[in-house]
């Protein structure tokens, strides 16, 4: 295989480990805290997670452990959307296993959780792992979005794990995938099996975080990649002075990516879905906000600008949210009927009987291509595929219409030419930044220690991430601690709670303090490309979000 000069150079990068897991394996023990509770719905979750509910927080510390004694066989799954650094989680897990006992083995389940259900595996070797160190992507074993949910799928997963003589399964995934990990850990114990399950917090969306998980891996690299591109677009806009760029950014529900990119690039507008929801801002009000900036900038002869749009926005606009919730319930509960409908017209007719009058009327006001996009298949976890809804085009169209009206009324005298962009997939497989390379390797190494020290139902964790890597602290957080009950596919299900942008949190407050200036005055910031080699202030900085949340 031909490889680039950078890939070759990155093979030689040695990821840094936190001091509490960097020494001899025999000198690492685990300290356990007090029993924990879930974030909500304690009684319901206690009943559902009879064997795994309430476990204590775990931190690695110097002491006499027996993590080096065991010969272990572990299987690893990459689950859900790609996030830079997944290969390093596997490398850290592999190196940990081999450091503990060179006879230990690591299997990779191919193509995501379905690899476990269907027993599709490969065995890692030194040579194979070395080809993927510090690289982006999930192509080492592939990923998938299959949800382990039916009794047959759970039974098949246990059967595979037993056939392979596994001591543990490691699930590298986001909130939905780690919910699956929690259910699997519980199921194995319920069936009398000692096979452990450990999760690792992945997702570029940055929404798998809480008091104990400071960030999910991939967020750092993805935001830096998008910010480079946004900065380039800003400079182009400032050079040509003729386009308004509407950039939709990935992040299925939470606006963490949009907010981080705004802090890194200082665009004219950045919409924050959580604020839209909290203040019940309608679609028309969003359009008014954008038009107000366009008009003021036109008065300064600046007929150009940049607007950042979180891809989840549509689900937070009150009238859209109501519509999507009703669509989800109708399509979830009567899915078999819905899939039989062959045309868009038939779907609309069917929906006229299944959703409220208000929502139906609102659906009809949307451009047909957007309405169609709202009716596309949900993913296996019941999520609307917001990446495929062209919110940027919807907003450009509405802003154009509104400005034409305002021009006719003599309120607006400028020129408006909107261009749409969507940055999503281009950020998910970049070479992991030094931060993600180190963080992921540490998460994988920590996952090995959690297994070797006998824990199950935990998410590998690394804390104190704003400090240099040597001062990070590795440990584990019980999966049930992060869970609550939510409405999915028309019924209540246990799920890990998503962390949304907090309007009283540091990152949003920092943005709020300056956004009115950015809306009018060109204040663009150009972060440039991710740097892998050079001074630490250029190469090793964590995200602004992490700093503002933890300093
Ligand atoms: P995960 O939550 O699985 O990490 O995926 C996140 C994500 O990248 C979202 O930002 C995006 O909406 C979605 O995946 C796209 O999914 P797909 O890759 O299936 O198109």
TrEMBL record:
BP term (GO), one: response to glucose
Gene, per the UniProt record: pfp
Enzyme superclass (EC): transferase
GO cellular-component term (any): cytosol
Record's keyword annotation contains Kinase: yes
Pfam families: PFK
GO molecular function term, any single one: metal ion binding
Site (Important for catalytic activity): 202
Protein name: Pyrophosphate--fructose 6-phosphate 1-phosphotransferase
Alphabetical keyword list: Cytoplasm, Glycolysis, Kinase, Magnesium, Metal-binding, Transferase
Organism of derivation: Leadbettera azotonutricia (strain ATCC BAA-888 / DSM 13862 / ZAS-9)
Keyword set includes Transmembrane helix: no
Cofactor: Mg(2+)
């Amino acid at each position: 295989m031909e490889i680039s000069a950078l890939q070759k150079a990155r093979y030689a990068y040695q990821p840094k480990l936190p001091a509490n897991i960097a020494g001899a394996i025999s000198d690492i023990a685990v300290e356990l805290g007090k029993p924990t509770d879930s974030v909500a719905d304690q009684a319901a979750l206690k009943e559902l997670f009879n064997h795994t509910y309430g476990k204590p927080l775990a931190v690695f510390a110097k002491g006499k452990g027996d993590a080096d004694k065991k010969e272990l066989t572990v299987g690893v799954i990459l689950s859900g959307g790609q996030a830079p650094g997944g290969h390093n989680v596997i490398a850290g897990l592999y190196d940990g296993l081999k450091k503990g006992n060179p006879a230990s083995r690591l299997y990779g389940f191919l193509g995501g959780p379905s690899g476990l259900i269907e027993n599709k595996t490969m065995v890692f070797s030194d040579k194979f792992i070395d080809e993927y160190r510090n690289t982006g992507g999930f192509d080492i074993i592939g990923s998938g979005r299959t949800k382990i949910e039916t009794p047959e799928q759970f039974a098949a997963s246990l059967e595979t794990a037993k056939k392979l003589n596994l001591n543990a399964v490691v699930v590298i995934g986001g909130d939905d995938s780690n919910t699956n990990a929690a259910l699997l850990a519980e199921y194995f114990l319920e069936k009398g099996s000692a096979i452990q399950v450990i999760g690792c917090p992945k997702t570029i969306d940055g929404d798998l975080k809480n008091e104990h998980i400071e960030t999910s891996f991939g967020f750092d690299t993805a935001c830096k990649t998008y910010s480079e591109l946004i900065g380039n677009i800003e400079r182009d806009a400032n050079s040509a002075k003729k386009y308004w760029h509407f950039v939709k950014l990935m992040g299925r529900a939470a606006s963490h990516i949009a907010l981080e990119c705004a802090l890194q690039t200082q665009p004219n507008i950045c919409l924050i879905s959580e604020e839209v929801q909290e203040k019940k801002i309608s679609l028309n009000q969003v359009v008014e906000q954008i038009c107000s900036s366009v008009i003021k900038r036109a008065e300064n002869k600046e007929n150009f600008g940049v607007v950042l749009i979180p891809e989840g926005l549509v689900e937070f606009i009150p009238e859209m949210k109501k519509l999507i919730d009703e669509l989800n319930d109708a399509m979830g509960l009567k899915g078999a009927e819905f899939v039989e409908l062959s045309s868009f017209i038939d779907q609309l007719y069917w929906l006229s009987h299944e959703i409220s009058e208000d929502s139906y009327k609102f659906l009809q006001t949307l451009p047909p291509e957007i309405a169609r996009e709202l009716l596309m298949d949900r993913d296996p976890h019941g999520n609307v595929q917001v990446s495929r809804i062209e919110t940027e085009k919807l907003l450009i169209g509405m802003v154009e219409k509104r400005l034409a009206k305002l021009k006719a009324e003599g309120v607006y005298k400028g020129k408006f030419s909107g261009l749409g962009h969507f940055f999503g997939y281009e950020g998910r497989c970049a070479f992991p930044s030094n931060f993600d390379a180190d963080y992921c390797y540490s998460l994988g190494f920590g996952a090995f220690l959690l297994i070797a020290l006998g824990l199950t139902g935990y998410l590998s964790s690394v804390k104190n991430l704003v400090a240099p890597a040597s001062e990070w602290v590795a440990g584990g957080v019980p999966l049930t601690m992060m869970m609550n009950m939510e409405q999915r596919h028309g019924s209540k299900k246990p799920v890990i709670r998503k962390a949304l942008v907090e309007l009283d949190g540091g990152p949003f407050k920092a943005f709020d303090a300056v956004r009115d200036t950015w809306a009018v005055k060109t204040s663009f910031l150009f972060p440039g490309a991710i740097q892998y080699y050079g001074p630490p202030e250029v190469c090793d900085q964590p995200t602004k979000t992490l700093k503002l949340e933890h300093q």
